[in-house]
Design a protein that fits this description.
Blueprint: H1 3-10, E1 23-24, H2 25-28, H3 32-38, E2 56-57, H4 84-101, H5 104-111, E3 113-114, H6 118-137, H7 150-153, H8 159-162, E4 190-194, E5 222-228, E6 231-237
Parallel strand pairs: 2-4, 3-4
Antiparallel strand pairs: 1-4, 5-6
Helix pairs in contact: 4-5, 5-6
The protein binds a DNA duplex (10 and 10 nucleotides) through residues 77, 79-82, 103-105, 118-120, 122-127, 129, 146-148, 151, 228, 231.
Region (Disordered): 1-24, 45-79
Domain HTH myb-type: 74-133
Subcellular location: Nucleus
DNA sequence: TTGATAATAT
DNA sequence: AATATTATCA
């Protein structure tokens, strides 16, 4: 742990974005009417995800190209930030499926994260596999820490992941059974949300984010602004119990 | 850096 | 044709 990890927790509540700042990706990326079906117009019932702990993923990188009311589908998807919680779900899904069936599409479906695409998972899976390979080499005690693998290290790697692969699928590993979202059923356990901050104008820093999909209430999270070159990244994740 | 995208393979 | 894996980009 570093200082930053302690610092952000300090300014955690201060920088805490309000639920209104969270834009439901399900509304922008999916069909408008479908988004409405997913959307909660009246935040009355909220605390039904206590065990799951609503996870908010903040995206960044919003193209400065004028129009802000671009068609949802033509919208360029912001960078996804893989938080430990999201990663944990990823690992759980992979563990549940077994290395064999752990392919991007299936993983994505099992994760049941709204807004998460197959590409997101594929990209991450690629990195994760590399991480696993790296760990096999250093098997024994020491773990590789490249600041890159921090996210991977946050979640324990199931034994069979490092296995030479000979077993078909002996997974009595049932972390959870998310129940694939087959039809339009607004029952995601998690969701990815995005929003755009206007750093240049700290005064009118109000966003016209519509409404939360259906889990904006207990949005506990911390927001950190990271500036890399000219790229502003705002990451937000819940203070989960993980 | 980390995640997206392109290229390629199955 | 669709999805998976690898490589490269930003």
């Amino acid at each position: 742990m570093r200082e930053e990890d302690s610092n952000w927790f300090s300014s955690w509540e201060e920088e805490l974005p309000s639920p209104e700042e969270l834009m439901p990706l399900s509304q922008t990326l999916i069909s408008p009417h479908l988004a409405i079906a997913f959307d909660i117009t009246n935040p009355s019932h909220h605390q039904q995800y206590s065990s799951q702990q609503v996870q908010e993923q903040q995206f960044s990188h919003q193209p400065p190209s004028g129009t802000e009311e671009e068609p949802a589908r033509t919208q360029k998807r912001p960078r996804l930030v893989w938080t430990p919680q999201l990663h944990k779900r990823f690992v759980d899904a992979v563990a549940h499926l077994g290395i064999k069936n752990a392919v991007p599409k299936t993983i994505m479906q099992l994760m049941s994260v709204d807004g998460l695409t197959r590409e997101n998972v594929a990209s991450h899976l690629q990195k994760y596999r590399l991480y696993l390979k790296r760990m096999q080499g250093l098997a024994g005690g020491a773990a590789a820490d490249s600041a890159t693998d921090h996210i991977f290290a946050s979640s324990p790697v199931p034994p069979h992941f490092l296995h030479p692969a000979g077993r078909p699928t002996s997974d009595h590993y049932l972390p959870f059974v998310p129940a694939l979202q087959q039809h339009r059923h607004p029952h995601q356990h998690m969701a990815v949300a995005g929003g755009h901050r206007h750093f240049g104008s700290p005064r009118n820093a109000h966003f016209e984010l519509p409404i939360l999909s259906r889990m904006g209430a207990p949005v506990t999270g911390y927001a950190e602004d990271v500036e890399s070159g000219g790229r502003k990244v705002l990451t937000l994740f819940p203070a989960g119990d993980d």
